[in-house]
Amino acid sequence: MILRLALAVLLAGTVCGPVLGQTVYVVSQEGGTLTPVAPQGAAIPVGKGPAQVAAGPDGRLALAYPDTQTVSMVEGRSGRVVARFPFAGQPFGLAVASDGRSVFVGDWSGHRVVRLSSATGAVEGSVAVGRDPAGLVLDRAGRLYVADRESHRVSVVDTATSTRIGTVPVGEAPFALALNPAGDRLYVACVRGGDLYAIDTATLAVVGRAVLGGMPYGVAVSGDGARILVTNQQTGTLTVLDATLAPVTKIPVGRYPEGVVVSGTTAYVANWFSDSVSVIDLPTLTETARLPVGEGPRGLAVLAQQDPAEAPR
Questions:
Q1: NHL repeat ranges (predicted)?
Q2: Of 144, 241, 138, which is closest to residue 189 (Cα–Cα)?
Q3: Which of 24, 72, 79, 177 is most buried when burial is the number of CB atoms within 10 A of its CB?
């Protein structure tokens, strides 16, 4: 039934795709695959246990494998695994530097963030953060924000000097982070606290909090900054808030939703226990399709495809 519905919607032209030149990918941990879901493509075998994925500016994706202590680089255009690096720790959260030359990796068991060369896997730097670093997000100025889950705070790292320059206390078990397009607000989803925090990135002060209940796991922001999207594992929903953190609606998705990303006017939600990705039309705030993917989808990324000749070296 889901497949028929997805096909009917696609044929009707009502499923909005990503921005032209972008591809949305999902990693499936149990299935060991990386799958393009918009535009849709065949699943790519990438090895056992990828839990998170991050897109770089050079047409490549970084994947974290916490169980096998590995970080991989995948070429988006071909789907080829171009490098596989051993990692001395438990890699989870990822962020790629603006020039694509480095990957920042949160070491879940080592309570640190490690900077790796994306070409060789060599360690270029390391900085101590809080306990169990989960989500990572990098801003345009080169500041890295880290959700320190068991320290109940966000660490702020200056990537130029590999130093922690601040911490911001938030609720219980911060897990996912997202910046708005202007870069002046950081949104923090707290999976055990059941709430969402807004942080002013200039002052590193909490400027808003929304009580959501359940288990907020993933967070994303619409391209115009007007909508904040939060997945809730416990209820199988996507909560939509406005920029003031006032609730707008809740959209039913699959079971145990985790990652969420936005491309254009469409959001994509990884439903871990349903082995699917929900496609959400943001103008109407409705689920327009639910696409089957590999077993255990968790992380999503939006990759801007690039001609290899234009990639930074």
A1: 133-160
A2: 241
A3: 24
pLDDT band at 306 (very low <50, low <70, confident <90, very high): low
* Confidence grade of residue 71 (pLDDT, cut at 50, 70, 90): very high
Cα distance between residue 55 and residue 93, in whole Å = 12
Tokens standing for residue 299 = 């992380």
Q: Which two tokens stand for residue 246?
A: 């006032």
- pLDDT beyond 80 at 138: yes
In the chain, where the domains are located: 2-303
- Please give the CATH number for the structural domain made up of 2-303: 2.130.10.10
> Could you tell me if 49 and 32 are in contact, meaning their C-beta atoms sit under 8 angstroms apart?
yes
Residue pointed to by tokens 């080829």: 80
